[in-house]
Amino acid sequence: MKKKLCSLSLVLVLALGCMSSASAAFIPDDVDYRELNGQQQAVKVYTLLPSDDPNELREEDFEHDGFLYAFSDMTKLEQTYSEDQPHTETVTVNTSSKNLEKVLEALEPKIEYDKDGYTGTLYLDHSSIKTEAAGYSSKSYTVTATKNFTGLDRNDTSYIDKTVIKDGRTLTLANVSWSVESTTLVDDVLLPATYSAVATYSGSASATVATGYISTADYTGTISSSGVASIQYTVVFLGSEIVPEASNSFFSGIAANPTALAGILAACLAIALLLFFTLLRKNTTVYGTPDESAGYEKCGRVRLSVKKPDLKLDRLKNAPDGNHLAIEVDEKTARKLFGKVITLHLYDREYQHTVGEASGDYWFKLAVEDDAADSKSNSQEESAV
């Protein structure tokens, strides 16, 4: 009896192994079974993104057409890209003067650009420089003027004007400086004959002045981007012919009893179906649209794992190419994922969503950035090459 139970367990383990192999994460671009120099080979070709892990391509041993295949080696071929494009960057600087010489001192003759995977050197376009006041304030100051008086018979301030007009402003007398202009001899005493005076006038004034200046300038040049768009992996498996083992008494007895054989096959089928719907059933539907007002179209269904809730949307046969996505998760799966974070991968972009409470099938929407669509286009073009 123990021997029979062990044999049945072995059958179930082999069935699980086959199903595990069928659930590989990546779908090959091409599969070729061939004989080379007397050696049977299975060659599978995959195209992966640089961020993908090629170790996931190492499958467990599998059977095909009477041969058992085991992993042998893997080679890779990088699909590179290179792109140049003109670019203009606007720079703003603050200066205390609008004098062009001062503005040029604040501006670098060139700048280095390094953003979004693009690099290059941009040079100052002198014709693009524009300067304007950053703001204005009122400033008070003193206006002064002087006036000379000559030929005065005495140093008397009554001879001096009390006000003068300068640039339309009235200035008042602030100070008088006297000096002897000529002398005369009286009784052998030299006395002043005439005087001269220098009168100083002052007044206050105000003006609106700039508090500083803002200058903008364009830097232009060519920026470049290069890298690896995708990687093609060729995985080789070596096959050995499967030699049937001699049947033991248990399997001989089963073969001789059609009713028992049918029962075992039915049990294995039921277990396989149970495992399929438990482990591999697709429980998530993906919809996409470029415009929400036009409605969503179904892109396909995928399997969302509760242990590792990752969705790789770009592996759908009809990968979404719109700017808006809607994800529908079956109620049973959504309840198990309550409070967990689902990570969605779309080409080189990654998005996350925390699952809320589900009272039926669980829905959530996702706005996709334009760069994701651009990344898809680049990937398809490089694959075609």
Protein architecture, described:
With 385 residues, the protein is α+β, with helices and mostly antiparallel strands. The chain folds into three domains: 2-79 and 230-280, no CATH class; 80-229, no CATH class; 284-384, no CATH class. It contains six helices and 16 strands. Strands 1, 2, 3, 4, 5, 6, 7, 8 and 9 form a nine-stranded antiparallel sheet that branches. A four-stranded antiparallel sheet has the order 11-10-13-16. Strands 12-14-15 form a three-stranded mixed sheet, with helices on one face. Strand 14 (341-346) and strand 15 form a beta hairpin. Helix 1 (2-22) packs parallel to helix 4 (258-280). The longest helix has 23 residues, at 258-280.
Question: Any key phrases for this structure?
Answer:
385 residues; alpha+beta; 3 domains; nine-stranded antiparallel β-sheet; 16 strands; 53% strand; disordered N terminus; disordered C terminus
Mean pLDDT: 84
Going by helix content, strand content and strand pairing, the class is: alpha+beta
**How many distinct domains?**
3
Order of helices and strands: HEEEEHEEEEEHHEEEEHEEEH
Number of strands: 16
Amount of helix? 10-25%
Q: Major sheet, described briefly? A: 9 strands, antiparallel
Care to give the gist of this entry?
This protein is α+β, with helices and mostly antiparallel strands and 385 residues long.
Q: Can you lay out the helices and strands and say which pair or pack?
A:
Blueprint: H1 2-22, E1 30-36, E2 39-48, E3 62-64, E4 67-95, H2 100-106, E5 110-115, E6 118-152, E7 163-166, E8 169-186, E9 189-241, H3 249-256, H4 258-280, E10 284-289, E11 297-302, E12 310-312, E13 324-329, H5 331-336, E14 341-346, E15 349-354, E16 362-367, H6 370-384
Parallel strand pairs: 12-14
Antiparallel strand pairs: 1-2, 2-9, 3-4, 4-9, 5-6, 6-9, 7-8, 8-9, 10-11, 10-13, 13-16, 14-15
Helix pairs in contact: 1-4
